[in-house]
Amino acid sequence: MIPRKNKDLILIFDTNIFLTGIDFNVIDGLIYTTPQIIEEIKVAKYSNKNRNILNKIQAAIDSKKLILKTPSKKYIEKVENISKITGDVNALSIPDKELIAITLELTDTINPDVVLFTNDYSMENMCVELNISYSSLYKKGIMSKITWEVYCPFCNSVHNPEDLHKMCERCGLKLKRRPKKKNKKREVYI
C-alpha cells in the first residue's frame, strides 16, 4: 500500500507500478522515476494497451507530481559495484540500476524518507543490501537478503556474477543463478 499522509515522502516507481494504472491524485508526496522507465512503458507492442497509463503519466509530469530524473554517475557506479557483490548484476536491467541509484541519490541529497516501489525481487534484494526503504504492490516482497552465485546446471561449476546467461566453457550449457549456500562450520574430530 502506498503511504498517503506524508507530503515530504518521496516515492520512486518502477515500471511494474505504473502498469497497475495507479491514480497519482490519491498519493501525497512526490513521485520520481527515470526517463528509461517511461520508455519501457512506451514499447510499441504495448502502446494501445498502455495509452491510458501514458496519459496519466503525462498529466502527472505536467502537474509536477511526477519528476523524471537521471541519476548521477557516482550512484550508478555504486549500484553496479554492489550488484556484483550480491550477484544481481546481470539480473538487473539498466533502468532497474538507475532506479536504485536515484533512490540512493535522493536519500543522500534531498530527503531520507525515500521509498522505492517495485515488484522485482532482484531490486528488493539490492535495497536490502544498500539499506534502502522499499515496498511492493500486490505481492509479497523478499523475506531476507540473498547473495547469488552463477553456476552451470550440468557440471555445477561456479562462475563470476557477470557471466549470468552466458554459456559454460566446460560443457556449453547456459549459466543460471542460485542462492549462495552459507558456509557451514565443519567439525573436525581428532
Structure description:
- The chain has 190 residues and is α/β, with parallel strands linked by helices.
- 33% of the residues lie in helices and 15% in strands.
- The chain is built from 6 helices and 8 strands.
- The protein has a 5-stranded parallel sheet with strand order 3-2-1-4-5. A 3-stranded antiparallel sheet has the order 7-6-8, with no helix packed on it.
- The longest helix is centred in the middle third of the chain and has 16 residues, at 94-109.
- The chain is globular and about 55 Å long.
Q: N- to C-terminal separation?
A: 57 Å
What is the architecture of the largest domain at the second tier of CATH? 3-Layer(aba) Sandwich
> Number of folding domains?
2
Number of DSSP-assigned strands: 8
Please bin the fraction of helical residues: 25-40%
Strand % is 5-15%
Cα radius of gyration in angstroms: 19 Å
What is the CATH H-level superfamily of the largest domain? Answer: 5'-nuclease
What is the mean pLDDT?
82
- Following the backbone from N to C, one meets helices and strands in this order, namely EHEHHEHHEHEEEE
Q: Which structural class is indicated by helix and strand composition?
A: alpha/beta
Tell me the strand order in the biggest sheet.
Answer: 3-2-1-4-5
CATH topology of the largest domain: Rossmann fold
Low-confidence stretches: 1-5, 183-190
Count the DSSP helices: 6
How does the SSE layout of this entry go?
Layout lengths: L9 E4 L1 H4 L11 E4 L1 H7 L9 H12 L3 E3 L4 H14 L7 H16 L4 E4 L3 H10 L2 E3 L12 E4 L6 E2 L16 E4 L11
Parallel strand pairs: 1-2, 1-4, 2-3, 4-5
Antiparallel strand pairs: 6-7, 6-8
